[in-house]
Amino acid sequence: MAAVQLGVHMDIFEAIEKRYSARRFEDRQVEPEKLGRLLEAARLAPSAKNLQEWRFVVVQDEETRARLAEAAFQRFVGNAPTILVCCADSDGYVMRCGLPSYPIDVAIAIDHITLAAVALDLGTCWIGKFDPDKIRDILGIPERVHIVELLLVGYATDSPRPKNRLAVEEFVRYEHW
Amino acid sequence: MAAVQLGVHMDIFEAIEKRYSARRFEDRQVEPEKLGRLLEAARLAPSAKNLQEWRFVVVQDEETRARLAEAAFQRFVGNAPTILVCCADSDGYVMRCGLPSYPIDVAIAIDHITLAAVALDLGTCWIGKFDPDKIRDILGIPERVHIVELLLVGYATDSPRPKNRLAVEEFVRYEHW
C-alpha cells in the first residue's frame, strides 16, 4: 500500500479529531508524492451511480494563486502553496431524493482528501466563498463544469482551536423526528 | 480518546481503501457504543460557517425500517439493522459560490461516519434513491428540514468488489483547465 510506502499511519478517529481549518501556511510546497496520496484518497471516494463527477485543478503558481485569492475575497487564500479547485463535470443527474448528486459526490472526495492530509502532516481549508465566474475565467473552466469548492493545502503554521460543536443529543433523534 | 477506549485503530488510508457499499447485513444490531462513535465522528465534521445543519434520525425498529425500504424502492434497505436518515435543518444559507451549504455539510458528516464505520468493522451504504415525501410522513420530519441521504449501517455479510474508478490523470489538471 502506498500509505505504507510513505511510512505514514494515522488512526481514522485521530484524523477526524485533528483536522481543522488551516489559514496560515509555510512557504514550502507540498511534495508531489503527498499530493499524489491526496488525489488517490479522492479517487477512491464513492459517488452516486459511481459517476465520479469530481475534477480537480491543482494550482501552485504564485501569480495564479494570488488571482484566485482575489476571486475568493480573502488574501490568506493565496498563501496556501497549493489550491485545489474542486469542480464537478456533471451530466445533470438528480437523485430520486430531489438533490443533484454532484455537490455531495465532490464533497465526499474532498473530505477524503482533508482526512488523508492530516496523516501526511498537511493542513487544509474548505473555501466556499468565491466568485465562480472569476475562477472560471482565471482557469479556463468550461461553462458545463460546476466549481464547488476551493481546498487550500499546505504545511499549516496556525494551531487548531477547540472545536465548537453541538452535542450529539442536539442533532440526533431516535425512531421519529 | 474514545477510539482507544474501544480498542479500535485503523489507518485512514486503509479505511478509505476498505470502505465499500454494503447491501447485505447480519441480523445483529449495531452496539450503542459503536453507534455513539459514529455520531461523534459526524459531530466533529466541518461545515460552512460552522452551521452544523446535520440532523440524524436513527431508525432500528423493524417495521419502520420496512416502511423506509418501501419509500426507497429497494427491499435490501430494510435489512440494514440501523438506518440513519440524514437530514439538514438549514436556514437556507447559500455560499458565495452559488451552492447551498447543507448538502455539502451533511455529506461531510456522513463521510466521516462511513470511514469511522470501517474501523468499527461496520458496513455502510449511501442511499440517495428515495421518495422524500414518504420518508417525511413516516418519521414526522417537518417541512423545513431537508432529507439528504439514507445511510445503512450494520455488520456486512457481502464482500467488497474491486473499486472501478477513473485514473487520477482523468480527473486532475494542473494550473489550468
List keywords for this structure.
5 strands, 7 helices, globular, alpha+beta, NADH Oxidase, four-stranded antiparallel β-sheet, 177 residues, homodimer
In short:
The structure is a homodimer of 177-residue chains. In chain A, 36% of the residues lie in helices and 17% in strands.
The N- and C-terminal alpha carbons of chain A lie at a distance of 43 Å
Overall shape of chain A: it is: globular
What is the CATH third-level topology name of chain A?
NADH Oxidase
Give helix % range of chain A.
25-40%
Strand percentage of chain A? 15-25%
What is the total tally of β strands of chain A? Answer: 5
Major beta-sheet overview of chain A: 4 strands, antiparallel
Q: What is the domain total for the residues of chain A?
A: 1
Question: From the helix content, strand content and strand pairing of chain A, which structural class follows?
Answer: alpha+beta
Instruction: Indicate the mean pLDDT of chain A.
Output: 95
What report would you give on this structure?
Two copies of one chain form a homodimer. With 177 residues, chain A is of the alpha+beta class. Helix content of chain A is 36%, strand content 17%. Chain A is built from seven helices and five strands, in the order H-H-H-E-H-E-H-E-H-E-H-E. Chain A has a four-stranded antiparallel beta sheet, sandwiched between helices. The longest helix of chain A has 18 residues, at 102-119. Chain A is globular and about 50 Å long. The mean pLDDT of chain A is 95. Chains A and B meet through helix 2, helix 3, strand 1, helix 5 and strand 4 of A and helix 2, helix 3, strand 1, helix 5 and strand 4 of B.
